Request: fold
Amino acid sequence: MYEEAKSVQGFRQISDHLEAGGVAAAVLSNTGKIYTGVCIDTACTLGVCAERNALFSMITCGENHFKRVLAIMSNGKNGAPCGACREFMVQLMEKDYKNIEVLMDYDRKEITTLGKLTPDWWL
Reply:
């Protein structure tokens, strides 16, 4: 997953008001397929995070469930999904979100779960 996310990462200026690729993500679906995505940042805040972009690709391809997610930040380190991404993941897998694995640090092989990051869903 890490290598696939790394392969799509690469900052690029698309226009004066839109850039992409600073952050890359990968999700592992329940069928074993890996989907990737990059962040798309806009001046008007209508962009999207890399994690949701990868999940949108998964959904577009007909899958609805995943078991792992990772993001590679622009500095090359891993990080936890933002609040909007966590909320999207929880709504996507309401009954099973707590067991989704989140890679926190590739070098140290540190993994947590979405349940630990998002223990109490608001709905």
The chain is about 25% helix and 35% strand. The two ends are 31 Å apart (CA to CA).
